[in-house]
Specification:
Helices cover 22% and strands 32% of the residues. By secondary structure, the chain is of the alpha+beta class. A 6-stranded mixed sheet has the order 10-11-12-9-3-13, with helices on both faces. It has a 6-stranded antiparallel beta barrel with strand order 14-17-16-15-18-19. It has a 5-stranded antiparallel sheet with strand order 5-6-7-4-8, with helices on one face. It is globular.
Length: 338
């Protein structure tokens, strides 16, 4: 994490988890969660990393590696995408967009170094440069009913539709859905932007943003879930994160076979329980006592009390789901895409 950015956030009363980059809150965890449901919040997205791919062959290289159709990624479009192993398991998920001829890739911060190192192994003779932008270009999340107005007041361009982007001086704004945006800005621009945005948006910790991701059904692959899921298990095709009409990429045969044979037995669910729900935790059912029937993708405290999560669950056991073991705490599960 950029040390200047951390110092700035600490001066703004950010509370960090231990010595990590995880921002728990800005002094009022409960109030920030409540605000996420009805007001406008501003969240430093310190759990995410940013990778840039540039060069003459950048588009062709990413297209040959990722599950989405990078070749047809428009100048103002944003795509969900994934990078799979040869066995079709997601080793990372991304938000991808273009800036001129370069490509920006948002990835889980705890995977960024490993993804960058492994991607570089496949560059070979391609004219592609991959670099880590996390220390120089930082990410903010802005969400709520006054989010678009806050962008305008801060002099930032506002995308007109979900999964589109606009670029201004030193800043790009990505619309995830109505009234929810990611802002990518240089360190030099951030302090002034922060002060302008907080005139209408309340600072909040990462739990509030993760809760919004859960409501939106947005699964982020992290170190805790790396290589656990075929993309369709996380309903990635419903997010537009898989193209079934492009050429080969790692794991393409398995991803395609899974789709056309209709053998996807696990899907994305929203989970609610009274206990802490953390990424990577196993889910069980008494109806299938011999092995786990699901895994949590991401979790967060709920403004209504208890905890909520996204989880990949074997659908025929979703009605009788327990945390940790078949006799563990009972959980409620609802399909994200029924």
């Amino acid at each position: 994490m950029n040390p200047n950015w951390r110092s700035f956030l600490e001066s703004a009363e950010a509370v960090f988890k231990d010595d990590s980059d995880e921002i728990l809150n800005f002094g009022d965890a409960s109030g920030e969660l409540q605000a996420a449901g009805s007001r406008t919040i501003l969240v430093p997205l310190t759990h995410l990393g940013l990778i840039e791919a540039s060069g003459d062959d950048a588009k062709a290289f990413l297209h040959s590696q990722f599950t989405s159709d990078i070749n047809h990624l428009g100048a103002e479009q944003v795509q969900h995408s994934a990078w799979c192993t040869a066995k079709g398991r997601m080793q990372a998920s991304f938000l991808a967009w273009r800036e001129a001829e370069d490509f920006q890739l948002v990835v889980s911060g705890d995977l960024e170094a490993a993804v960058l190192k492994r991607l570089q192994m496949f560059v070979l003779r391609s004219k592609v440069s991959l670099r880590n932008l996390t220390a120089s270009r930082l990410l903010l999340g802005l969400a709520g009913p006054q989010a678009a107005e806050a962008l305008g007041d801060a002099g930032l361009p506002c995308p007109l539709a979900p999964m589109t982007t606009t670029t201004g001086h030193q800043v790009s704004v990505i619309a995830l859905e109505a009234n929810r945006y990611i802002i990518a800005a240089t360190m030099e621009a951030l302090p002034a932007l922060w002060h302008k945005l907080t005139l209408k948006a309340r600072p909040a910790g990462l739990p509030a943003w993760r809760w919004l991701d859960i409501q939106a059904g947005f699964p982020l692959v992290t170190a805790a879930t790396r290589e656990e899921f075929v993309p369709q298990m996380a309903d990635f095709e419903k997010l537009g994160g898989i193209s079934f009409h492009k050429g080969c990429y790692p794991g393409q045969e398995i991803v395609a076979r899974t789709q056309y044979l209709g053998k996807v037995k696990r899907h994305l669910y929203r989970i609610h329980g009274e206990q802490l729900l953390e990424a990577g935790a196993d889910l069980h059912s008494p109806d299938n006592p011999d092995q786990a029937c699901g895994k949590i993708v991401s979790g967060a405290p709920s403004p209504a009390g208890g905890y909520e999560a996204l989880a990949v669950v074997q659908s025929n056991f979703a009605a009788n789901l327990h945390l940790g073991s078949s006799d563990g705490p009972r959980l409620e599960a609802v399909a994200v895409n029924p």
